[in-house]
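During the second half of the funding period, the structural biology subgroup turned its attention to how the target accommodates small molecules. The most pressing case was zinc ion, which had performed well in the primary screen but for which no bound structure existed. We therefore specified the complex as follows and requested a full 3D prediction, including the ligand pose.
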Amino acid sequence: MHPKYLDFWGNIDGKELKILRGVLKENFIESEKRIVLKNDKGIKKILEKAFICHKVEDSKIYFDENTNYVFRIIFDLDNKKFDEINENDDVFMILNKISNIQIRNKAPYFMGTRMGRPEKSERKSMKGVHTLFPLSDKVGSTRLVEKGIEFGKVKIDVCRKKCPRCGNKTIFNICSKCGTHTEFQKICNNCKKLFPKFEEQCSQCGKLLDFSSEASFNIKAHISSVLKSLKMPLPKKFKGIFGLTNQFKVPEPIEKGILRAKNGLLVYNSCIYEEPGLSF
Ligand SMILES: [Zn+2]
Ligand SMILES: [Zn+2]
């Protein structure tokens, strides 16, 4: 069975599984094909141990539709006959004996790690930057997005991406036309031709291909359409960056920055965590 529909059966033993199966059989309402259990302390403990989602209401325990269905199948609740369970057997041996579906251990091991000290991480703002969207250095040291809008178009070094569904070319991760996740393209900075990601050389001039190239981006049109869809005005003193420094030069969706600016949040450039007890 797919792990999505599996509970953490490895957390309980054969004895607990036997008890659980007993009450499930007993409290399976055939006409409604669902299970309603009495809120018994011992049963609730078993459910919690196996991380089984359940709801307690009016001292009764209920399960959602999926769980009802899955339990009906794997515990063979339609079958009136109650076969003997040897509680000393392994849980999965028992489960596979009563069910025709193979059930495996969803989580044989649990691993934990230390979280460090979040309170030690300093708020280091990037000089009041709201959005990791490149504006080019022409906007001046204020890095105001409205300066870029004044220019209409800005010359920026960005990636080239293509929508695998509708073929739309964009610089963003999500296709603005159909919402599909876009794929990286390579570009020849000599011929300005696009190539699939796995190509290394331009077939036309032989130059090595890059992941980014300078583009004249109409920031004015882009922001006005974004503001329209967000139904918001341009935030005051909304600041971006000169250029992108990440390897593939993917700009951040400007919507994120607008929402940061609206709520007075900034982009943070680092977080400090200490991991004194962590050893691998
Ligand atoms: Zn598309
Ligand atoms: Zn070329």
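Two results from this model are relevant to the next phase. The two ends are 33 Å apart (CA to CA). The pocket of zinc ion (ligand 1) is lined by residues 163, 165-166, 168, 175, 177-178, 180 (CB under 6 Å).
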